[in-house]
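User: I'm new to structure prediction. If I give you an amino acid sequence, what do you actually give back? Let's try with this one:
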Amino acid sequence: MKHFMNSVFVVLIFITLFVLGNLAMNQSAGSTDADVITFRVAQSKSANHPVSKGIDKFAELVEEKSNGQIQIQTYHDALIGNDREVIESAQKGGIAFASSSTPNMTSFTNYFTAWDLPYIFENKDEVYQAIDGEPGDVIRNEMKKSGFQVIFFPDYGFRQIVNNVKPIQEPSDLKGMKVRTTNSKIEQADFDALGATPTPVSWSEVFTALQQGTVEGEGNSYSLLWDSKHQEVLRYATEVNYNYSSDIVVMNKEKFDELTQANQQLIMEAGDEAMIWQRKLANEREEEAKQQFIDYGIEIVEPNEEEMRKWKQAVKPVWDRFIKPGVADPAYVDLILETLGKTKQEIFE
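Assistant: Good question. You get back a string of structure tokens that encode the predicted 3D arrangement of the chain. For your 349 residues, that looks like this:
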């Protein structure tokens, strides 16, 4: 009897250990999946645009730095929504990350309005100096008030004036031309000052509008124009860099704050590295796209120094109209100019 009881006891112990072992294995397998944090990032540009590729690089770096424990799914081509829709979704926490062109962010802080001023940035070095310096930090702090953690600023590029009517050598050549603009009041004022007829048209409708003659020209970067096949409905380009456009990648602030300090740090590091990588790509792609325009047969006008002075002088009144409290904050404009070591007079002289 005693031997029987000992045998039963041994069997019970074996069964118990077996069950506990299986339970532990199952819990271990489940915890591996549970430990993987999955986020989504969405934006509207095509998947092959440098901004999109920069976001893909960011996702790749995050996964690499976290050893696969943080994975970011990327959605381009407005699959989840346009700029405004994805930004609002990120603000509410529907998605973790979103990217938008900065003109669409002015409802969160009017500091972005200053970035739209014609010729406030005259080259990429100035752009990077401002974004990486105090003007960029002001934006980063302001965006926190609206529930965003700024991750990085992808490089979009300078806008050029393109059309399908005639070569544009100087502002007077634009007189009466119907030029597509965004909803940016500053961009509309730019073309009004240049003598054109600014015509707001949504991006998805611009190709058809050019094709049908609803508009005769537009302003955009070479890379975006080429990737969107606008060369098929254009004949001329004028390289005047009248406006710089940046994008911004943000994360829902609550979701960011819920992460461990180590994970917060690796996400910010990934953003910094992706931004450096993306800037190089964006500049290379812009040069490549310009050459593609030339090879396609698009005539590109490159104004000389004296001609560029005319372009700048023509849009100078736009500054006086928009630099005021509640629009382009005067103190913030001064901060940008101080950071770049120049004055308004030097831009337009």
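You can read the tokens as a compact description of the fold. Here is one thing that stands out. The beta strands are 37-42, 70-75, 97-101, 148-152, 155-163, 178-181, 197-200, 217-220, 236-252, 299-301.
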